[in-house]
Amino acid sequence: MTDAQAGYRLLVAKLRRIARLEETLKLLEWDQATYMPAGARQHRAEQMGVLAEVLHRYRTNPRFLALVDELAEQLGELEPAAAVDVRETKWRTDRLRKVPADLQAARVRAQALARAAWLEAREHNSFEGLCPHLREVVLREREYAQSVAPDSNIYQALLEDYEPGLPLEYIEQIFCELRKPLAQIACSVNELSKTRRKQTTVLRGHFPIHDQRNLSYFVAQQIGFDFRHGRIDESVHPFSISIGTDHRITTRYEETDLRTGLYSTLHELGHALYEQGLDADAHGLPRGMPCSLGVHESQSRLWENFIGRSEGFWRFLLPHASRFLPSLSGVALEAVLIDVNEAAPTPIRTEADELTYNLHVLLRYELERKLVNLELRVEELPEAWRHGMEQLLGVTPTSDREGVLQDIHWPSGAFGYFPTYTLGNVFAAQIMETAEREIGPLLPQISQGRFSFLLDWLTVQIYRRGQSYRSLALIQRVTGAPPSSRALLDHLHRRFDWWMEHGAL
User: Fold this and answer.
1) Does 233 lie in the same domain as 335?
2) Are 101 and 60 in contact (CB under 8 A)?
3) pLDDT tens per residue across span 340-378
4) Mean pLDDT of the chain
5) Domain tally for the chain?
6) What range does the domain containing 422 cover?
7) Which residues are catalytic?
8) Is 144 in the same domain as 218?
């Protein structure tokens, strides 16, 4: 065994130890968002801060850093798979070694307190209670960005936590390509929504939460979610989190609207399927980790929208849904498709249709860039939000809960995260085009409940590759073309044409 090989074996052991600490921190985060009693908020923030400091010190231990540096100089002596692990670990440690441990602990504490304050502010429909906590989060994220990349744009540094190596210019290019055509579609949707005569509300009414839970479990199981290594719970803001080989989804049900819980489940299911499809033998190593948040979001958006709103999916699901929810018996397939593909302006991002969704993301992207660049004060957010919604979508939030308090991302310190939703849509459209070309028409398979054809293909093409490639290179390799907005715009124009024919009359 060469020195490089011996060093790599030691690195694997250390990375897996780090992974166990990360998983423990994630478990605390999951509990905070689900079942933790409100009175434990302050103490939980301290717990998470202490663990984050321990984790950071382990990641930046001089002996560990020296090992990573030594292996980075020996890449040519390692197998290609091992070289991937070293390359990606080196990139991350070079960023983290610049961050003081006390700053990392302060970031986690600030985020934990802000998440708790967000829950209370949302409940009381008042942004004021969140303001001081969000100011602290913004301050800490700026300090973090200046530490990891002192010579870089602050927003670029934050973006790379979610999209390693992705130039900010690429994000700008994508939004530039999408802004005008999406604004035109949104304008048409707004006008049509005012004169629309056909009102289809078959998925709105009274749907007992217990029955919705059973339907969500059924859908997840049929698509391929492994409940031996996962579970579904509920939270104010749905999310997916992986705690080692324990993959947890949370969703949010509304008794009066079946779509909310079902599509939240499908979205988070897409994330969980990606995590369950990673290379188990490389757990804790970059090869066993998701490529990026944009690629991760491509999977949530793919299953939620490209599959979940398709005719094939509902041809399969409707008869089964009628067993769980008898009120759906006798409902026409076309009526369901109109309801799940409804195009109408809404102030809520998670309830937005495909045609207007990316404008919600664009607004958040523009606001968060201004926040971290100190071009917008936290206190000015509600008004800036309302103005942006009016300009981009032609709707005005009626309250803070319906406006600036609807997302948990900023209290969680997730600046640079929002663009990955649109990146996910861009990637998903291109991936789906390729899947149709390589597997063949998916509609006949999906309509029979045969999801494994697509899931197996995604597992081989994307999931098992982990971080072997950065996001743009991965999409190029999978699809044979550089990622662009073309496939997404084609998809959205088809959706718009369908809506004009079936739902807008």
Assistant:
1) yes
2) yes
3) 998 888 899 988 899 999 999 999 999 999 999 999 999
4) 94
5) 2
6) 169-502
7) 268
8) no
